[in-house]
Amino acid sequence: MSTSTTTVAAKGVAGRPRAAAPGRRAGRPAGRTHKAFSPWLFLAPGLLITLAFNLYPFLATVWKSFTDARTLTTGEFVGFDNFTALVHDDQFWVALRNSALYVVLVVPCLVLLPLLLALLVQRHIPGIAFFRSAYYTPVVASVVVVALMWVWMLDDRGFINGVLHMVGVDPVPFLSNQWLLLLSSMALTVWKGLGYYMIIYLAALANVPRELHEAAEVDGAGPIRRFVSITMPSVRSTMVLVGALSSVSAFKVFTEVFMIAGPTGGPGGDDTTLVMLIQRTGTGLQGRTGYASAMSIVLFLLTLVLMLLVLRADRKDKD
Amino acid sequence: MAAVTHHPAGPRRTRAPRRLKALRYAALVVVLLIMIGPFLWQLSTSLKGTTEDIYTSPPRLLPEHPTFANYRGVADIIPVWDFILNSVKVAVSNVLTNVIGAAMAGYALSRLRFKGRGVAGIVFVLALLVPMEATMLAQFATMRSLELNNTLVAVVLPGCIGAMNVLLMRNAFDNIPYEIEEAAIVDGANVWQRFTRIALPAVKGTLAVVAIFSFMGAWDDFLWPLIVLSDSDHFTLTVGLNFLHGTFSNNQRVVAAGTIIAVAPLIVMFACLQRFFFRGVGEGAVKG
Amino acid sequence: MSIHRSVAIRTAVGLGTALSLTLLTACGGGGSGKGSATDGKVEGEIKFQTWNLRANFKDYFEGVIKDFEKANPGTTVKWVDQPADNYADKLSADATAGTLPDVVNLSPDLAYPLAKAGTLLNLDKDKVAAKFKPEYLDGAWQGFDMPGLDGSYAFPWYLNTGPLFYNKSMFKDAGLDPDKAPKTFDELFADAAQLAQKGKATLAQPPTVEDFGRYGVQIMSEDGTKFTFNDAKGVDFLTKYQAMFKEGGLHKQALTLTAETAGQKFLQQEVAMNPGSAHDLDTFKKNAPSLYNSLGITDVPTNTGKQNMYLQGLSVNSQSKNAATALAFAHFVTDQKNQEDFGHKVAVFPSTKGSLDKEYWTKSDGTEEGKIRVASAKMLPTAVNYTPVLFSDEMKTILRNEIAKCLQGKESPKQALDSAANQMTKLIQQK
Questions:
Q1: Tell me: the pLDDT tens digits for A153-176?
Q2: Are B115 and B199 within one domain?
Q3: Is residue C354 a part of any domain in this protein?
Q4: Dist. CA B191–CA B108, nearest whole Å
């Protein structure tokens, strides 16, 4: 991979040739080898975009959350009114509950199932490359696309109910019951994420010394005991990583629920998630931008807490 | 049984019961059906003609008289090719801006010494902490004041140089041995020459990863285009499919055809570039 | 890839303006300069925006524009049409960016937030526009009266009561007279019960605010400060709907279906009735020929004897650079001749005084369409817009959600309506 083209044309030299002292670690030149402004030219596009479309909107959201701004009006400063209103807003609590439920139910599945899957496809047996790729297919497809496929599978007269009907089970109202709608969305999230996390685990498993397993097998340890006492500890840090990644994205879930439970969030809006509520409240001709910004701040703080919690669990484990 | 991960060529291999192997394949096939079954069912539905009942129980797996009529039907209801073109424009721009912008910024952070480098690095790390979902309303307001709302430019801009990609590139550049660049400095190469001729070729793999994930991210994105686009002329494919799903004259066979049209290019791309997809997962996750 | 270049350029340009612009808006100095005078000379270019009308009426509008330009030399009208979906988003984006067209097609609920933000011309307060007021039906003109904003904000344009489609063969199968559609809500509930006995659903959506209005429920207090649909009559209405839902009179997925997906259920003959618009006829003809053959069209049931009036209007942008031209054009499109012409093109009704007395709308030509036209025209003079002007999307969602909770049995009808009315009243008091 390292195509080291060391011969560089010496025309148009900008910086004076100078033998730089070897840095303390590779990649850290000691002396100046460029004009003072060059680094900023390199950084300018990335820095500007990040400041303008990431950090500035964040500050603007913080400011807006203290105003009663609407889509068409800038609004006035109202102090903590939006936040106190949130506390008394039933819809907000329902949305918060749904997003939290999403984390609680989806994350354990996404931490464990892909690990089992990785173990299943780990061995280099004939045809395994095909299975690995096939398992990754849902990752490649758009959420909207796979959600539409699922909606069709889960229809009252769709594939799953068709099969259930064969064995004499009444149609299951996947697409009209409040809880089944939410569970179906979660199942979709898990299904779509399996392949992605499977690959992460495969990379981690490749580093587990085989001798460990062999020694355990000689000791007469069964598969389950070997899984618990050897595999799990050796990929523990990867599990934490997967937990962190999947919990943050589960908390921000939007598309799956939007597509399966519908834009208004299921019957009575009881399947609305936090991001759905932000989208619904803050957009449109009469959108309450200020109020929705307050929800956005809550979303930001909670994702931060979630990340810290997972990382802290990791540290505690290590101690 | 899944935990059997011993050495394939080990001495005890012959002792491994054949039954176990059969069991493993059985498990592989069951999972296979779960993972790609929905795609196949969708494909089958999309090929069924209007005269064929698609609501039968037991479900009929193969179309009786396969037809492509539904694929033509998609284009009658939504301008699906325009949507695809829009998505391609967005995805390709996103790849170019991310590859170039992230490589440049990552190079500066990794290989150049200057005052303020630490601060610049922190800006990108901070950006990682702010979820897009929490700032999208403010982003929308910014787009409106720039009069960019309802344009594809607005779809691309916020994610056009991802902080994550910048940090990925920085890590990649960190791994190039300094000696190589040193020789170029002695030869009198300037920064730009060192960047394009030495550093970039050395991180081709990571560039490919950034490119693929930028493409997928843009192709997949739904929430932001949904908010920022209002004319159906500018819809990307995901927003367009949602629209197709919601139209009055909706027909399950046509929706199925639409989803197949949307997913097929991605599957082909994946089949060709598998290596980078898998590599990308590893790098993105481990270093993120 | 040319887009990439333009992205790069616009990024560079954009970032500069981004900072200055956001500073501007942050300071609240939007620079909302007043438009030109409405009594000035009628000349120059204006932009005219319609809502989902190009597909079917391209020739009509091009004709009207040509006539106007001929009558007013030196004027140019640029016509744009927006698709049905996301119209509100498009408007809000244009309004904040200051790019709202000079003449805009609006319904009262869309006009309200725009008028409140000061982007529309108050016709009652404009000496040129106010003169035209007597040409229009009083009810239509008042339809654009914005509560708390002291005036009317659009020239009334076309009216509609909105037909109710029903499936005659489903009626017949259930032992109902296919030619006798329910006229009142009691008849509707009775028919639904009979259809439900055969395992068929009647409607695909729970009741909307218009349904409450047609049932005779007072939606808001007289002074427009408070929602009052949670009175005894409202509770009675919802109780009956709850019973209807329980016995299967509503589609099983009724609580999650949108207006569009509800239409699909009617297309698939899973429900017997569905409200719609004249445009839907084409859809039926093309996509569901068997349904089209047994299609019945009737008025939506009402207990008040009055229909709900769906009203469209043309507003003038208050910041228009050629306000005189914009005003003249908005009036021109909505004058008696042009409105009557338009009413001949499609099943909508003119809002100009005297138009509905013309033979076309009073004497049936014997066709099915003619019969419906005359019947609907008869209802129009008394029709009311039951949807309060300040009924926002958010309120729509609140009402829908509370009704869903009630139909599922999680809340009693009284609880659901109390809660909805409270939340909505809070929203209008917030301002």
A1: 998 888 999 999 989 888 899 988
A2: yes
A3: yes
A4: 10
- Final residue of a structural domain among B28, B44, B67: B67
Residues C125 and C79 in one domain: yes
Interchain contact A262–C (C-beta under 8 A): yes
The shortest CB-CB distance from A145 to any of B57, B120, B259 is to: B259
Which of C10, C23, C100, C281 to probe the B interface (max B CBs under 10 A)? Answer: C10
Residue B123 domain boundaries: 74-287
DSSP C50: E
Kindly tell me if the per-residue pLDDT of B15 is higher than 60.
no
Q: Are residues B121 and B224 in the same domain?
A: yes
A80: number of Cβ within 10 Å: 11
Same domain? C321 vs C419: no
Pair B57, B187 in one domain: no
C155 pairs with which residues across the strands? C314
Count up the domains in chain C and report the number. Answer: 2
Interface pTM, i.e. ipTM: 0.86
Across C172-320, the runs of DSSP E, i.e. the strands, are 273-275, 295-298, 310-316
**Closest by Cβ to A5, choosing from B41, B138, B197:** B197
Angstrom distance (rounded) from CA B105 to CA B94: 16
**Domain CATH code at residue C222:** 3.40.190.10
The H or E element spanning position C105 is strand C103-106
- Return the DSSP state at B32: H
C402 lies in a domain?
A: yes
Closest CA to A306 of A253, A247, A252: A247
| Per-residue pLDDT, B249 | 55
Residues C335-364 pLDDT 10s:
999 999 998 888 789 999 989 899 898 888
Whether B272 has a pLDDT exceeding 50, the answer reads yes
If one counts every other C-beta atom within 10 angstroms of the C-beta of residue C221, the result is 11
List the end-to-end C-alpha distance of chain A, in Å, as a whole number: 39
CB contact under 8 A, C88 and A173: no
Q: B67, B90, B115: which is the final residue of a domain?
A: B67
Question: Containing domain of residue A196, as a range?
Answer: 89-282
Tokens representing C70? 């001929």
Contact A120 B28 (CB under 8 A): yes
Same domain, C396 and C356: no
The model carries a pTM of 0.84
Interchain CB distance below 8 Å, C404 and A268: yes
Average model confidence (pLDDT) across chain B: 85
Same domain, B50 and B190: no
Taking contacts as CB-CB distances below 8 angstroms, the residues of chain C near A268 are: 255, 401-402, 404-405, 408, 410
The per-residue pLDDT for C82 is 81
The answer to whether residue A301 is domain-embedded is no
Say if residue B47 is in the same domain as residue B179: no
Chain C residues whose beta carbon lies within 8 Å of the beta carbon of residue A288: 394
Q: Does C25 touch chain B (CB under 8 A)?
A: yes
Residues C202 and C302 in one domain: yes
| Chain B residue whose CA is closest to C262 | B248
> Would you say residue C106 lies in a domain?
yes
Do C372 and C296 have their domain in common? no
CA of A89: which chain C residue's CA is closest?
C423
B209 Cβ partners below 8 Å, 6+ apart? B168, B276, B279, B280, B283, B284
- Chains with ≥3 CB–CB distances under 8 Å to A: B, C
A43-94 confidence digits (pLDDT tens): 999 999 999 999 999 999 999 999 999 888 888 899 999 999 999 998 999 9
Q: What is the CATH number of the domain that holds B105?
A: 1.10.3720.10
Residue numbers in chain A where pLDDT is lower than 70: 1-32, 316-319
Residues B97, C8: C-beta atoms closer than 8 Å: yes
Report the alpha-carbon distance of residue B197 to residue B200 in Å, rounded.
Answer: 6
- Would residue A304 count as lying in a domain? no
| Domain assignment of residue C141, given as a range | 44-160+309-382
Q: Which helix (H) or strand (E) holds C156?
A: strand C155-160
